[in-house]
Amino acid sequence: MNLTLLMYLVPSLVMFGCGVYGFLTRKNMIAIMISLELMLNSVDINFVVFNRYLFPDQMDGMFFTLFAIGIAAAETALALAIIINVYRVARKVDINELTKLKF
Amino acid sequence: MPLSYTIAVIAIPLFMFFFLGLAGVKMDKKLTGWLGVIGMLITTILAYGVALTYFFGSDQGQIADGVRKAVVVFNPDWLSFTKTLVVRMGIMLDPIAAMMLIVITTVSMMVHLYSLGYMCDHHGHAEKGFQRYYAFLALFTFSMLGLVVATNLFQIFIFFEMVGVSSYLLIGFYYQSPAAVHASKKAFIVTRLADLFFLLGIMLLSFYTGTFDFDKLVFGANGANSLEVAQSAISTAGGATFLGCSVTAWALTFIFIGGAGKSAMYPLHIWLPDAMEGPTPVSALIHAATMVVAGVFLVARLFPLYVIEQGAMEIICVVGAFTAFYAAAIACVQSDIKRALAFSTVSQIAFMMTSLAVSSADSGLIEIHGGQGLGFMASMFHLFTHAMFKALLFLCAGAIIHAVHSNENSQMHGLHKYMPITSFAFLIGCLAIAGIPPFAGFWSKDEILVACYAKGMGWGIWMSMVAGMTAFYMFRIYFLIFHWRKHEVHTEHAPSDQPWTMTLPLIILATISIVAGFVPAHDLVTWDGKELHTQLNWTVAGSSVLIACIGIGLAYKMYFKENELPDKLQARFSGLWEAAYRRFYMDELYQFITHKVIFQSICKPIAKFDRGIIDGFFNMLASVTGQAAYGIRRLQNGSIQSYVYVYLVGALALAVITMVCVLI
Could you tell me if residue A17 is inside a domain? Predict the structure, then answer.
């Protein structure tokens, strides 16, 4: 059985949907961050797959993915640092209770 | 001396203004004063050199075929808008400009020197703002010199404004006194109003004649004023009319109104008496000798145009003759010495204006009386002599005020014993202005009267009567200050003659007032540059001397020794006396017109419209925006997940729309 483009895209889409759902419903900030990572990774898969199937003689998509993974790592570190600091100050990580930044 | 040195005559005062104004603060007060005097002395020497070269010196192109030409020394383009619309900034010498150079620098020099003494208190310490005072004097001198040598109307206008500004600054020199501040504002606003007309006149005239330059408007091929050139300039207008008068007549009338504002002609004279709030030397320089004759100078500069536009000339004539009488009547009852002198100035300037205006009378009289030329020459001659003796009178008044610390003549009386030099100088000034031979005023006023009689018997008699009033009110002031009764010493030291810096200018100006009448003005300062052959008209001269003597005699009878007569007359004609004392209620009339009529019925509705409708519209826009923003700010509720939800929905909606569009 040949693997077609669609066979990669469907799981990626499911992953993205899970990410969105998690982002909207989770209350814990760490869980939200994990959902965010899920979305990011599904996008990475799309990059690689499109590159492989549409422009097999070029490597742009691959490089983009590598960049995205690197930046995602940095961003995760930053986000964790922020969450830890928020926890230190507010003693909670529940997103529904952290609504100070408003009008 | 090359005529191009005129540039230095103008540049030095400008430099002194910047130098004293910027560096003066750091310097010793007396030093700045002396620097100002030295700068002015150099300017004066150069100006005399240039003017005397122009009149008497070897030929530098200023005389051709017995005609004194206008010499343009320097005339670069300053602003060139289009090929035809070019504003130039230059220097031009003609007989009246050269004469004005002498007048301005002489009086300015005397005032600079005099102020060294006047602007000090009784311990000899210079007053606060001494440097500022000298800087402004230099600025004024520069502006006035630039005005008289202007080559075009636009340049005259610019310098007209600059003398206005320097006048404003110097009237308001004692800026802590509310009266001085009010007076300076009044002077500025009234003259600005007149200058608006001047600007309109310039625009009209230059639009229809196509030029600003005097050498195209009035100067003929031989370099002197020419009626043919003026006629052709006016005919360029192509006979355009407005309300039944030609546009050039309107333009010239407007220009005259501009001049009337500066020269304090009725009804724009109201600022001049108040301008006496400034330091007395400033009154002598600006409000007696130089700036106030700018209007006369302006009319003289455009004289050929006025000769052709008789309508404008008639207006000047009537305004001048009326102002002369009106101001003289007020001067007869004023108790403030400087105000009396101010009204005397208004009256004398009106003499000059009238003289210019009558000089265009019936040209058939040229053979008999010198016709067109005589009034012009007389006016300029009177300008010259008047500047000298009126500056002298003001400087004497300054010395008296400095000695007794009051402007009211009730505080003076009997000063002859205490201040003999000032007394003699004042007497000479009075004799000169009254027109007693051989003092300067006799010669010039006599020519004016001859010119008036040439226009018509009525004009002549009217002006002779005013001349008699002049003699009366001047000697009234003189007797009240120096005689009347014994002086009551109020302060611990009795009044005395002032230090030499103040006395020397008095002596110099008194000498000039004695001899200035012998200047051969009719050979030098004529409208067409040719010599004017006149001789003393003994009928007019004799009668004017007689009238002056009657005026003096009356003043002697009433005011020499303390007596009841003035009080009795005052009680007898109390209504008239009060009206004259209150200047025939002109200030009240202005107050009424400006406050009650203009402010109430025009400005207030406009202000209401502005505040209610224009401001209201923009306030409404702002408040609607504010309310809307306040309403929608609840959307920002601080919950990140709700933002993401909104974003998601929006993104999906966009995606759907895009898809729909693509599919269709």
Answer: yes
pTM check: above 0.90: no
Query: For chain B, first and last CA: distance in Å?
Result: 95
Report the number of distinct structural domains present in chain A. 1
**Cα–Cα dist B84/B88, whole Å:** 12
- Looking at the DSSP bridge assignments, the partners of residue B104 are none
Interior/surface letters B618-642, b for 16+ CB within 10 angstroms, e for the rest:
eeeeeeeeeeeeeeeeeeeeebbee
Q: Which of B633, B638, B644 sits opposite A99 (nearest CB)?
A: B638
Q: Are B493 and B330 in contact (CB under 8 A)?
A: no
Q: Which of B639, B643, B647, B652 to mutate to test the interface with A (most CBs of A within 10 A)?
A: B639
Which residue ranges of chain A lie beneath pLDDT 50?
A: none
Does the residue A83 lie in any domain? yes
Distance of CA A76 to the CA centre of its chain: 10
The values of phi and psi at residue B279, to 5°, are -60, 145
Chain B residues lying within 8 Å of A18, measured CB to CB: none
Residues spanned by the domain of A72:
8-90
Contact list, A102 vs chain B (CB under 8 Å): 636-638
Q: Give the model's pLDDT for residue B618.
A: 94
Output DSSP code: residue B233: H
Q: How far is CA A43 from CA A16, A21, B475, B477, B652, in A?
A: 8, 16, 109, 105, 17
d(CA B191, CA B186) in angstroms, rounded, equals 8
Q: Is the peptide bond before B267 cis (omega within 30 degrees of 0)?
A: yes
Predicted ipTM of the assembly: 0.85
The verdict on residue A102 lying in a domain is no
pLDDT for B441-469, tens place per residue?
888 888 888 888 888 888 889 999 999 99
The CATH number linked to A63 is: 1.10.287.3510
In a domain, A100, yes or no: no
